[in-house]
Description:
The chain is of the alpha+beta class. About 25% of the residues lie in helices and about 20% in strands. It is built from 2 helices and 4 strands; from the N terminus they run ββββαα. β3 (about 35-40) and β4 form a beta hairpin. The mean pLDDT is about 85.
Amino acid sequence: MPDTTPEPIATFCGKCDCGCPQLFVDADAPDDRRVRITDDFGQQVQMSEEQFADLVTQAKAGALDRFVAAAA
Length: 72
């Protein structure tokens, strides 16, 4: 799938040239696939803005903290 947004909203890592995971919002995509997260292996996840908002809410509430602590 070609990128429809030339600049990512966020790049995760960004300290190398390995094709770091990135976050895009595609305004032209169907509502249920508007948010796209790519990984450094060429895969992607697409979700609605509502699903992404829920992910952010859960992350802010600490649901992902144990994974961050394990990586540190």
